[in-house]
Amino acid sequence: MILGFRSESYPSFQLPLIMQEKLVSPFRFYRDEKILEGVNFKHEFYGLVEEFEINQRLQVYQLAWALAEKKVPIILTTSNARLGIWIRLRSPAYAVWLNYAPMLPKILLRLHSMLHRLNVVLPQKAEL
After folding, report:
1. 7 lies in a domain?
2. Which end of the chain is more exposed for a tag (fewer CB within 10 A), N or C?
3. 47 pairs with which residues across the strands?
4. What is the H or E stretch that residue 98 is in?
């Protein structure tokens, strides 16, 4: 027990950083014949993979939690207009996300919730 909590009750991963979008440096970049959004934060570059309306906070946090559990390097941004999920551009997860973007969030959330209901623990791979 640590501070009254069982050791298996706290996450073994880093929770995603949540910040105001105005605190990151935005830029645009060209990839696969598209112009995409990116941000620079603490000398790392991140690409926008999903954006949501403000009233979709729960979906954003669920998706961010699922990604953080798999050690995908992400940040969350908030503004008056949207919530954004950004993945570090150097991460292989960014390229995978771009290739499967339309279906990946729904599949990931569905699998994540099913595995948690069944208490299934998947082996962890090295950090992406």
Report:
1. no
2. N
3. 38, 87
4. helix 92-99
Residue 44 pairs with which residues in a beta bridge? 41
Q: In what order do the strands lie in the sheet containing 17-20? A: 17-20, 74-78, 83-88, 44-52, 34-41, 25-31
Backbone angles phi and psi of 125, in degrees to 5: -95, 175
**70/51 Cα distance (integer angstroms):** 20
The one-letter amino acid code at 44 reads: E
CA distances from 110 to 33, 35, 41, 53 (A): 31, 30, 30, 20
Four-residue CA torsion sign, 30, 31, 35, 39: negative
Whole-structure pTM value: 0.72
What is the extent of the structural domain holding 74?
12-117
Tell me if 124 is assigned to some domain.
no
Tokens 């569905």 found at: 110
Contact (CB, 8 A) for 86 and 46: yes
d(CA 122, CA 3): 27
The number of domains in the chain is 1
pLDDT digits (tens, 9 = 90+) for 40-78: 999 999 999 989 999 989 888 888 888 888 889 999 999
Q: Which of 1, 39, 2, 35 is nearest to 17 (CA)?
A: 39
